[in-house]
Design a protein that fits this description.
The protein has 436 residues and is an alpha/beta fold. 37% of the residues lie in helices and 25% in strands. It has 3 domains: 126 residues, NAD(P)-binding Rossmann-like Domain (Rossmann fold); 140 residues, Dihydrodipicolinate Reductase, domain 2 (2-Layer Sandwich); 89 residues, ACT domain (Alpha-Beta Plaits, 2-Layer Sandwich). Bound molecules: L-homoserine (HSE).
């Protein structure tokens, strides 16, 4: 505890998450004092634009645009840094660590790009970096993996790690809305990243999966080496067709041990509608973590948004004050120093698949598609095509949904390449695995 019973902190960034942090510090001051034995104060706040209206009271803080104000304040020992981007936050955090301050961040892109450097620096300086909010928003998954599951070898993680894309997929199906309208709503609600492309193309989920993989499997994988596919080309008809077949489409992040190799992927996947992961709706995240001793553990909750993310940030702050952050940080340094696992070659992974094509409505088109699949040893398990208008000139478009039996990714990709050359295709096709 701070000798005077006061624990002054700094805050860098006062946007969606930062204002949520200020609100918890103010509204739950008594609770936080009970948790830490200290009164947490916020003497310094650093923002890009001090004139921007914020719905929190910063009248007891000095608000500036320069990190120097925090660096110069020796009474500040912990700093909440909630700013997006990588280059600026990296420089800030290096300076904060060098000036003897512990850092709390929610920035997964930063950890993916500069985690090794920042963790080593913090270790050499005897400081800590806490980042519970960087993965799955309000769900305490970092502390679960680093502390609660220490008796386990992790066997698999199957998860929904991006709230925005889950919100989009759920809303489209529940309200029969189109993709772009729902994406705008997700942005207005504060779920989406500044650049929502990261949410919908699978990058944000891949960054979070890379962080979990580092801790759960001791394997450092650059997030852009994780096979990933986004949700941009999924339309309402796909969601309805999947629902008709008894499935929900979810952007699934998977890290799984497979013959002592690590299988990693982020892709929209058909999941049986009665599974808990399929029932995860809105901006919620979900993780099923299998440990060899505990079995399957399921965590669910708000994965994005102001207050859930701030909840995880303030929990990290409490850990910093009580000393728990040092234990967790040391645990994660040890966890990521294990022998890295080799990656499972994607081409060898075999799964059932959902294929959807919009094709010219004329003779032999279905036969051509079936022929390509057959030649690559891919067996069809069902075919659906709704009745189309009778167009004598063959200008109509038919929508075909084909489910396949289990086939390897290598065979499927070879078939994809040939199918992409067929002149009967009309618009983007979709291929998604079906989870067993
Ligand atoms: N944009 C992220 C999401 C926020 O939608 O999950 C939390 O990282």
């Amino acid at each position: 505890m701070h000798p005077a019973g006061i624990f002054p902190i700094g805050l860098v960034g006062c946007g969606t998450v930062g204002t949520g942090v200020v609100r918890i510090l103010q509204d739950s001051a008594d609770l936080l004092t009970a948790q830490t034995g200290c009164t947490i104060t916020l003497p310094q706040v650093v923002v890009r634009d001090p004139t921007r209206p914020r719905d929190v009271d910063l009248s007891h803080s000095s608000v500036s645009t320069s990190l120097d104000a925090i660096l110069a304040d020796n009474s500040i020992r912990a700093v909440v840094h909630v700013v997006g981007g990588t280059a600026g936050p990296r420089n800030d955090i290096i300076r904060l660590l060098q000036s003897g301050k512990d850092v709390i961040t929610a920035n997964k892109a930063l950890l993916c790009a500069h985690g090794d450097e920042l963790f080593s620096l913090a270790q050499s300086l005897g400081r800590t970096i806490s980042f519970e909010a960087a993965v799955a928003g309000g769900i305490p998954v970092i502390s679960t993996v680093c502390t609660a599951l220490t008796a386990n070898r992790i066997v698999s993680i199957e998860a929904i790690l991006n709230g925005t894309s889950n919100f989009i997929l759920t809303r489209m199906l529940d309200r029969r809305q189109v993709y772009h309208d729902v994406l705008q709503e997700a942005q207005q609600l504060g779920y989406a990243e500044a650049d929502p492309a990261m949410d919908v193309d699978g990058s944000d989920a891949a960054q979070k999966l890379a962080i979990l993989t580092r801790l759960a499997f001791g394997t450092v994988v650059p997030f852009d080496r994780i096979a990933r596919q986004g949700i941009q080309n999924i339309d309402l008809q796909d969601l309805l067709a999947a629902a008709d077949l008894g499935y929900r489409i979810k952007l699934l992040a998977v890290a799984r041990l497979n013959s002592a190799r690590l299988e990693l992927s982020v892709q929209p996947t058909l999941v049986r509608a009665d599974r808990s992961i399929a029932m995860t709706s809105g901006a919620h995240n979900f993780l099923a973590i299998e440990g060899d001793a505990v079995g399957v553990l399921k965590l669910a909750g708000a994965g994005a948004g102001r207050m859930p993310t701030a909840s995880a940030v303030v929990a990290d702050l409490v850990d910093c004050i009580t000393g728990r952050a040092a234990c967790t940080f040391n645990a994660l340094l040890r966890l990521q120093q294990r022998n890295p696992l080799p990656l499972h070659p994607t081409a060898d992974i075999a799964r059932r698949q959902y294929l959807r094509f919009n094709v010219a409505d004329r003779p032999h088109v279905l036969a051509d598609l079936a022929h390509v699949l057959g030649r690559h040893g891919i067996s069809i398990s069902s075919v659906r095509q709704d009745e189309t208008e009778d167009s004598a000139d063959g200008t109509g478009v038919a929508r075909l949904v084909i489910l396949t039996h289990r086939a390897s990714e290598g065979r499927l990709q070879a078939a994809d390449n040939e199918i992409d050359c067929l002149d009967s295709l009309r618009g983007p096709r979709i291929r998604m695995p079906i989870a067993d």
